[in-house]
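quick one before i forget lol
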Amino acid sequence: MDKAKGKGKSTTMSGAEAHIARENARNAPGGLSANGTQLSIWERPGDPPSYVHGMFCLTRDDHLEQQALPSFPSGSSGMVKLPSSVAESATDHLRELGLVGEKVKAALEVVAPRLLQEAEDRGSSVSGRAAAERCLEWICSTTAESALPGKLHEPREVTAGRKLQEDRNVACQTKSLLLGGQIDPIDITRIEKLGFSRARAIQALAEAANNELLPAVKSLLSEYLPLELPPDVDPRTVIPANPQELWDEVEAMQSIYGEEEVQSFGQGVDGMELMAVLPASGIGGGGGRWTLAFLIPPGLPYPLVSPLLCPRHERLREANRPRLMEALGDVCRHTIGSPMFFILCEWLQENGHRFLVRTATTSEESGDIKQKQLLSRQRDLAAWGAADQTQLEAEKAKQSAAEGAKRIEVLRGKMLEEGAVKPKDKIAAEIRGQPETTQFDLSGYDDQQVQLLVKEAFGMPLDCKAMIRITFVVGGGKALRSKYSESLAKTLGSALQELGFLQDSAASCDLASAGCFKGQHDTQRNQKLVHVFPKVSGESSEQPGARPSSLVVFRLTFLLF
């Protein structure tokens, strides 16, 4: 790699001559460059490099093993700071790479506690170079490549050459191993589903006993997740998980996160494979979606099921994945002694952004954090008082239903006064004329048209005995984005709520979900959808949005027992 790229140097020499000149400068006494100035810390030879961000070679000043950064509450990370001289030196080093401003300040606040603790343990002090290197590692791991300065971008020809060589190495190794009958190609694919590269999958299988899948996966993840029973648990008091129990837990997840977001690949001889896709709202710039790939080995004690998993996120880079895995393992170990599905999913949704991005939050973001903390406390109360929580949710749903019923009665009277005229909107007319499960594209609709559509289509219960699902396409990817109004989904949801509809992510096509709606992102078609479950003349007596109490107790049973 050309480490001098982007350092402000210009020359008319050929590529070979420039390379020779750089090497001579590096080998000169004192490490001086060709013009007599001291070499930057990013170009200084002699120290072993560490591979960071997949493209940039660093030299570690402390030569210590990388450890997980501590997660501090908002506002407390500034209590421990680096000395001003060290911070200024690190800032100067980072300025050479084009990193300035609040990003550098936030990085210094994040790495300061760990660096100071390491220095105290060694009986030494923190250098500006060590602080700069640790800050660069954190910035590269939490920033999209397109947002990094040009000096941290790998040249295209280097990227292409390295990728070609990696493909050749993997292809050669794969061919030699597979031809020898040592490794099953299906096992390689399974490990790749967990987020590991093909080369690492082959290496792990080659080193595993009898080239079996489960030992290979354990060797890759065992240092991050507890895979055995806690020391104080007697193995004779637990029973292995059977396929039906695992299926029950999968169905419980589907009832909460949605059937389309939780997909199981079935129970095989090596365990159950499961993929769960969750939204990651990400305060401070997280965003995107979490994809969790589970591999549950057979025979593990239930309900202390220890899944082997690897979370993937568009902002989670290879340098941060081991740290997040370790943090997940600690959270689950301290909570129930072993990881479980719900604990992992809820932890990611609530704390993923805190691990990836630690910056000062605005007042609006602080309000969002408080709201999330409140939701977390409510879930804790639900885990220890299922009956009370269920009753509370039923009372809230009853109140919402009463308010919605009043709105519907008022709207019904207005429609009767207007003479129950035929809907003006074509989609509304089709929904009321032939109520059935179908999908409509709202491209070209503005806010007023959407409000009219909702009022005419769902103002009165539909004349059908069974529940139907009306799906609206309200957005899409870059190729489709221009066809839809940016406020289309928000306007549609507000119009439905004015009619007494409730937003319920667990709603499904049954009468218990009458009067509910939910959003979805169809990743295969790259479309944003809104599913509406209207009130129908044959709906049950349950209140809109109310879920059967057996579902709540069922979910909590897996969390507590």
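fyi DSSP finds 17 helices and 13 strands in the chain.
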